[in-house]
Design goal:
0% strand; mainly alpha; Membrane protein; transmembrane; globular; transmembrane helix
Protein backbone atom coordinates (compact mmCIF):
# COMPACT_ATOMS: atom_id res chain seq x y z
CA UNK A 1 0.00 0.00 0.00
CA UNK A 2 1.41 3.39 -1.01
CA UNK A 3 1.81 6.30 1.38
CA UNK A 4 -1.05 8.19 -0.31
CA UNK A 5 -3.35 5.18 0.09
CA UNK A 6 -2.38 4.88 3.75
CA UNK A 7 -3.15 8.56 4.36
CA UNK A 8 -6.49 8.17 2.55
CA UNK A 9 -7.60 5.39 4.89
CA UNK A 10 -6.10 6.89 8.05
CA UNK A 11 -9.15 8.98 8.97
CA UNK A 12 -11.79 6.24 8.57
CA UNK A 13 -9.55 3.78 10.42
CA UNK A 14 -9.20 6.17 13.37
CA UNK A 15 -12.95 6.81 13.35
CA UNK A 16 -13.73 3.10 13.46
CA UNK A 17 -11.27 2.66 16.33
CA UNK A 18 -13.01 5.53 18.14
CA UNK A 19 -16.34 3.81 17.52
CA UNK A 20 -15.11 0.48 18.87
CA UNK A 21 -15.73 1.23 22.56
CA UNK A 22 -19.42 2.23 22.25
CA UNK A 23 -20.05 -0.47 19.63
CA UNK A 24 -18.71 -3.19 21.94
CA UNK A 25 -20.69 -1.76 24.85
CA UNK A 26 -23.79 -1.70 22.68
CA UNK A 27 -23.27 -5.29 21.57
CA UNK A 28 -22.99 -6.37 25.21
CA UNK A 29 -26.22 -4.52 25.99
CA UNK A 30 -28.04 -6.16 23.07
CA UNK A 31 -26.85 -9.60 24.17
CA UNK A 32 -27.98 -8.82 27.69
CA UNK A 33 -31.47 -7.75 26.63
CA UNK A 34 -32.02 -10.57 24.14
CA UNK A 35 -30.46 -13.29 26.28
CA UNK A 36 -32.65 -12.91 29.35
CA UNK A 37 -29.99 -11.50 31.67
CA UNK A 38 -30.70 -10.93 35.34
CA UNK A 39 -32.43 -7.64 36.09
CA UNK A 40 -30.23 -5.27 38.10
CA UNK A 41 -30.68 -1.64 39.21
CA UNK A 42 -28.32 -0.65 36.40
CA UNK A 43 -30.26 -2.31 33.56
CA UNK A 44 -33.80 -2.32 34.96
CA UNK A 45 -34.91 0.67 32.86
CA UNK A 46 -33.67 -1.02 29.68
CA UNK A 47 -35.35 -4.34 30.49
CA UNK A 48 -38.63 -2.56 31.18
CA UNK A 49 -38.56 -0.78 27.80
CA UNK A 50 -35.95 -2.38 25.52
CA UNK A 51 -37.09 -1.00 22.13
CA UNK A 52 -35.68 2.55 22.48
CA UNK A 53 -32.24 1.40 23.60
CA UNK A 54 -32.10 -1.27 20.88
CA UNK A 55 -33.03 1.31 18.24
CA UNK A 56 -30.40 3.66 19.64
CA UNK A 57 -27.65 1.03 19.54
CA UNK A 58 -28.45 -0.14 15.99
CA UNK A 59 -28.90 3.39 14.63
CA UNK A 60 -25.74 4.76 16.25
CA UNK A 61 -23.65 1.76 15.17
CA UNK A 62 -24.77 2.06 11.54
CA UNK A 63 -24.29 5.82 11.52
CA UNK A 64 -20.81 5.78 13.05
CA UNK A 65 -19.35 2.76 11.24
CA UNK A 66 -20.82 3.39 7.79
CA UNK A 67 -20.27 7.13 8.13
CA UNK A 68 -16.53 6.62 8.61
CA UNK A 69 -16.22 5.49 4.98
CA UNK A 70 -17.77 8.75 3.76
CA UNK A 71 -14.45 10.37 4.67
CA UNK A 72 -12.60 8.46 1.91
CA UNK A 73 -12.33 10.91 -1.04
CA UNK A 74 -11.10 8.26 -3.47
CA UNK A 75 -14.11 6.07 -2.74
CA UNK A 76 -16.46 8.94 -3.56
CA UNK A 77 -14.62 9.69 -6.81
CA UNK A 78 -14.37 6.09 -8.02
CA UNK A 79 -17.87 5.07 -6.94
CA UNK A 80 -20.10 8.16 -6.72
CA UNK A 81 -23.13 5.92 -6.36
CA UNK A 82 -21.71 4.56 -3.11
CA UNK A 83 -21.86 7.96 -1.42
CA UNK A 84 -25.51 8.46 -2.37
CA UNK A 85 -26.60 4.94 -1.39
CA UNK A 86 -24.76 5.14 1.93
CA UNK A 87 -26.32 8.54 2.57
CA UNK A 88 -29.79 7.05 2.18
CA UNK A 89 -28.93 4.67 5.01
CA UNK A 90 -27.05 7.18 7.15
CA UNK A 91 -29.74 9.87 7.34
CA UNK A 92 -32.47 7.62 8.81
CA UNK A 93 -29.95 5.75 10.97
CA UNK A 94 -28.63 9.01 12.41
CA UNK A 95 -32.12 10.33 13.08
CA UNK A 96 -33.11 7.07 14.79
CA UNK A 97 -30.01 7.30 17.00
CA UNK A 98 -30.62 10.94 17.90
CA UNK A 99 -34.37 10.70 18.51
CA UNK A 100 -34.17 7.46 20.49
CA UNK A 101 -31.42 9.02 22.60
CA UNK A 102 -33.68 11.99 23.33
CA UNK A 103 -36.54 9.64 24.22
CA UNK A 104 -34.35 7.72 26.66
CA UNK A 105 -33.15 10.96 28.26
CA UNK A 106 -36.69 12.21 28.75
CA UNK A 107 -38.55 9.04 29.75
CA UNK A 108 -36.11 6.53 31.24
CA UNK A 109 -35.60 6.85 35.01
CA UNK A 110 -32.49 8.88 35.68
CA UNK A 111 -29.66 6.58 36.81
CA UNK A 112 -27.59 7.48 39.88
CA UNK A 113 -24.72 9.85 39.14
CA UNK A 114 -26.24 11.53 36.09
CA UNK A 115 -27.98 14.62 37.45
CA UNK A 116 -29.87 17.47 35.82
CA UNK A 117 -26.78 19.04 34.25
CA UNK A 118 -25.95 15.89 32.28
CA UNK A 119 -29.60 15.56 31.28
CA UNK A 120 -29.48 19.09 29.90
CA UNK A 121 -26.30 18.37 27.94
CA UNK A 122 -27.81 15.21 26.45
CA UNK A 123 -30.94 17.05 25.36
CA UNK A 124 -28.87 19.88 23.87
CA UNK A 125 -26.44 17.77 21.87
CA UNK A 126 -29.01 15.13 20.92
CA UNK A 127 -31.27 17.83 19.50
CA UNK A 128 -28.29 19.42 17.74
CA UNK A 129 -27.42 16.10 16.11
CA UNK A 130 -30.94 15.68 14.75
CA UNK A 131 -31.00 19.28 13.46
CA UNK A 132 -27.61 18.87 11.75
CA UNK A 133 -28.75 15.73 9.93
CA UNK A 134 -32.01 17.36 8.80
CA UNK A 135 -30.17 20.47 7.57
CA UNK A 136 -27.66 18.26 5.77
CA UNK A 137 -30.49 16.39 4.05
CA UNK A 138 -32.23 19.63 3.05
CA UNK A 139 -28.96 21.01 1.67
CA UNK A 140 -28.28 17.99 -0.54
CA UNK A 141 -31.84 18.09 -1.86
CA UNK A 142 -31.10 21.67 -2.93
CA UNK A 143 -27.79 20.50 -4.44
CA UNK A 144 -25.80 22.67 -2.05
CA UNK A 145 -23.09 20.08 -1.55
CA UNK A 146 -20.71 22.26 0.46
CA UNK A 147 -23.39 23.04 3.05
CA UNK A 148 -24.52 19.38 3.04
CA UNK A 149 -20.98 18.27 3.80
CA UNK A 150 -20.62 20.70 6.69
CA UNK A 151 -23.86 19.79 8.44
CA UNK A 152 -23.34 16.05 8.06
CA UNK A 153 -19.80 16.30 9.48
CA UNK A 154 -21.19 18.19 12.50
CA UNK A 155 -23.91 15.57 13.02
CA UNK A 156 -21.34 12.78 12.73
CA UNK A 157 -19.08 14.52 15.26
CA UNK A 158 -21.88 14.58 17.83
CA UNK A 159 -22.68 10.93 17.14
CA UNK A 160 -19.06 10.01 17.86
CA UNK A 161 -19.32 11.60 21.30
CA UNK A 162 -19.43 8.30 23.21
CA UNK A 163 -16.00 7.27 21.94
CA UNK A 164 -14.39 10.61 22.84
CA UNK A 165 -16.13 10.64 26.21
CA UNK A 166 -14.37 7.39 27.08
CA UNK A 167 -11.08 9.21 26.42
CA UNK A 168 -12.04 12.25 28.50
CA UNK A 169 -13.05 10.06 31.44
CA UNK A 170 -9.93 7.87 31.40
CA UNK A 171 -7.34 10.40 32.69
CA UNK A 172 -9.71 11.63 35.39
CA UNK A 173 -10.42 8.11 36.62
CA UNK A 174 -6.72 7.17 36.62
CA UNK A 175 -5.76 10.22 38.66
CA UNK A 176 -8.82 11.13 40.74
CA UNK A 177 -11.06 8.07 40.64
CA UNK A 178 -14.75 7.99 39.75
CA UNK A 179 -15.98 11.49 38.83
CA UNK A 180 -18.82 13.06 40.75
CA UNK A 181 -22.09 14.22 39.26
CA UNK A 182 -20.89 17.63 38.06
CA UNK A 183 -17.49 16.40 36.92
CA UNK A 184 -19.09 13.54 34.98
CA UNK A 185 -21.47 15.93 33.22
CA UNK A 186 -18.61 18.24 32.25
CA UNK A 187 -16.45 15.36 31.01
CA UNK A 188 -19.31 14.10 28.85
CA UNK A 189 -19.89 17.59 27.44
CA UNK A 190 -16.16 17.98 26.84
CA UNK A 191 -16.22 14.95 24.55
CA UNK A 192 -18.89 16.56 22.37
CA UNK A 193 -17.12 19.92 22.36
CA UNK A 194 -13.82 18.34 21.28
CA UNK A 195 -15.52 16.51 18.43
CA UNK A 196 -17.32 19.62 17.22
CA UNK A 197 -14.10 21.65 17.36
CA UNK A 198 -12.35 19.05 15.20
CA UNK A 199 -15.35 19.00 12.86
CA UNK A 200 -15.22 22.77 12.37
CA UNK A 201 -11.49 22.57 11.66
CA UNK A 202 -12.09 19.90 9.00
CA UNK A 203 -14.95 21.86 7.43
CA UNK A 204 -12.96 25.09 7.20
CA UNK A 205 -9.57 23.70 6.16
CA UNK A 206 -10.71 21.70 3.14
CA UNK A 207 -11.81 23.65 0.07
CA UNK A 208 -15.43 23.37 -0.91
CA UNK A 209 -14.49 23.11 -4.60
CA UNK A 210 -14.00 19.35 -4.20
CA UNK A 211 -17.45 19.02 -2.70
CA UNK A 212 -19.03 20.94 -5.58
CA UNK A 213 -17.18 18.97 -8.23
CA UNK A 214 -18.01 15.66 -6.51
CA UNK A 215 -21.65 16.57 -6.73
CA UNK A 216 -21.44 17.55 -10.37
CA UNK A 217 -21.73 21.29 -9.78
CA UNK A 218 -19.33 23.55 -11.59
CA UNK A 219 -19.09 27.27 -12.04
CA UNK A 220 -19.78 28.68 -15.48
CA UNK A 221 -16.74 30.00 -17.26
CA UNK A 222 -16.40 33.77 -17.15
CA UNK A 223 -16.34 35.56 -20.45
CA UNK A 224 -13.78 38.26 -20.88
CA UNK A 225 -15.04 41.45 -22.51
CA UNK A 226 -13.95 41.71 -26.13
CA UNK A 227 -11.19 44.21 -26.71
CA UNK A 228 -11.68 46.71 -29.50
CA UNK A 229 -9.69 45.89 -32.62
CA UNK A 230 -6.69 48.08 -33.29
CA UNK A 231 -7.68 48.21 -36.95
CA UNK A 232 -11.09 49.70 -36.24
CA UNK A 233 -11.66 53.02 -37.97
CA UNK A 234 -11.34 56.28 -36.10
CA UNK A 235 -14.49 58.12 -35.14
CA UNK A 236 -15.68 60.55 -37.72
CA UNK A 237 -15.02 63.53 -35.42
CA UNK A 238 -11.29 62.66 -35.28
CA UNK A 239 -10.70 62.52 -39.01
CA UNK A 240 -8.96 65.39 -40.77
CA UNK A 241 -10.87 64.82 -43.98
CA UNK A 242 -14.66 64.76 -44.17
CA UNK A 243 -16.27 61.34 -44.46
CA UNK A 244 -17.30 60.17 -47.88
CA UNK A 245 -20.62 58.92 -46.55
CA UNK A 246 -23.16 60.20 -44.08
CA UNK A 247 -23.22 56.76 -42.44
CA UNK A 248 -20.16 56.09 -40.21
CA UNK A 249 -18.31 52.91 -41.05
CA UNK A 250 -18.36 50.09 -38.57
Amino acid sequence: MTSSAKSTWLVPTLLIILTAVPVVAGAVRVAELTGGAEVTPENARFVAAPVPVLLHIVGATLFCVLGAFQFVPGLRRRKPGWHRIAGRVLVPAGLVAALSGLWMTLFYPQPPGDGELLTGFRLLFGSAMAVCIVLGFVAVRRRNFARHRGWMIRGYAIAQGAGTQALTHLPWMLVLGTPGETARALLVALGWVINLAVAEWIIRRRPTRASRSAGGVSRPARRRPARPSRSSPEPASCRTSPPTSSVPSR
